[in-house]
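We modelled the chain as a single entity of 456 amino acids. Its sequence is:
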Amino acid sequence: MEATALFWKRPYTDHTKRMVLGLLLVILGSLLFVTGHSDATTAASCQKSVTRYAGTTNTIYIAGADVVCTPADIQVMYPSSMKHPKARTFMLKSNIVLQQGATLIIKGGTASDATTDEFRMMSNNNNMTNNFVNITADYGTVHITNTKVKSWDEATKAADTEYGDIYKRAFIRVRSRAIGNVQNISRMNIVNSDIGYLGYYGAESYGLAWKVMDSAFDKVDVLGNITNSRIHNNYFGVYTFGAFGMVINQNEFDHNIKYGLDPHDDSDSLKITNNSSHHNGDHGIICSQRCDNLLISGNNSYSNAGHGIMLHRSVDNSIIENNTVAYNGDTGIALFESNHNIIRGNLVKSNKNGIRLSVGSSYNLFENNIIEKTKEIAIYTYKGSDTPVRSDGINAGNAWKTNTVTGTGLLVLQLTATHGDQFKSNSFAGNPLAGYDTNRVTNTSFVSNSTDLNNL
């Protein structure tokens, strides 16, 4: 794993090197996962000599690039820290910290090396010291496959539903660091699994977290994939900070306290495809602060308290296409100070507002979207009260082409703080009860759009 130090130190502005490096690391991680995790490897590498236990913090440390452990291995070495209440079920009662490239595999199913169909993490609602646990990879790897993972309150003998108002809750996180020119890269993969009732409001403690430490985004990435899994009842469903190249495909993110899926600072080149994000306490999918070159495609984001899909603060050069966003409490698709994106072929249905731009979102293309049955405003642009980081807050140079808007409740268009937009060949017919507020735009053209009154 130390070989990563031989790769170039890439500047943030050199996207080509960053993408090639990330792809190489993804391939390397996949090869290691396929070739290096046999029963013999696990039995040989996970020995007590590569671990230590710290009683004051109730933590098991596991270290070494060739070290691969399972819950069954840890239970043999530390039976008080890893309980085995019934067949193929393990209960973690101590923190685990993976270091120096060590790997933890939590795997269920029918494969010969599968030991864990259910993995419980102690999360007791009492005032005792060390009353909840976490798993941290600080230069390490976590693989979760074909299993169920959840917090566990020993008093109630059930998942912990208290998420921090009084007591904290178990969580899993992986951290990457740049130490000089050495990249200590961590990874977490989640495949065919059910993960729930993790996390609380605290840095890196939201439930499932991937993070680059010290904001060293130009030096190191944090990696992993999430596929065919259900992530539910966490504080945040998923949170990333500095992730690169993650594949997030065919998952369900539901009933999380805040966001369903939250890629954050400098999480770039993610493929967010074919997921369902619903009944979350805020936005279904939000990508925030310099998350570039994203593909958000084929997702169904519905019945969330906030927006269906949001690009927030300098999320640029991304594609939002062929998604269904419906029945959300606020806006279907919202852009906040984000530029040069393509939003096309989406069905935006029965939201409070349809598509919303604010705080200087500019040079975006909106094409072939269907916006129907919007309760208030179908297309809404405004400056907002937040301070822009890189513009004057005016939404400028956006193109709206061949979109269809029907069944709007209040306004088809409400355009303010808008300059140089182009509306061409859109169908605004089928909105007999809705009006238009376009008197506050500058240098904006309306060409060949159809309306009920034929007046735009």
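As a brief sanity check on the tokenised model: DSSP finds three helices and 48 strands in the chain. The longest strand covers residues 171-179.
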